[in-house]
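Now for our target.
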Amino acid sequence: MKNRPISVIIVSILFILIGFIGFIYHVKEFFEPNIKQYELVWVLLLRILAVICGLLLFLKVNWARWLAIVWLLYHILLSAFHSTSEMIIHIVLLIIVSVILYLPISTSYFKISPDCKELEE
């Protein structure tokens, strides 16, 4: 399949936007007093990872689907320390994104084309 499924485009754009907006939001915290810089750096790296994940999904990189799922699983783990509603929202997002990225149309999009088999050998 050569054309990107609209579902993959939407998930890719969402990951890029969430990562970018979250990065901008958290960068401001560098200027706050009493901030734990190592925690902030970790948060910023996770936001950059979301942007990278979205770009890789858009560029048809198969393992980016797993990266997206792991990213959401990590957020479920984090939200377990916050509110129950936040955790439920992340679980629902994980289910939706997993289903979208592993629909037959999405799976056929991420398969390696016959032209690329030469590169594997």
Remarks:
- The CA atoms of residues 18 and 113 lie 30 Å apart.
- The first helix runs from residue 6 to 27.
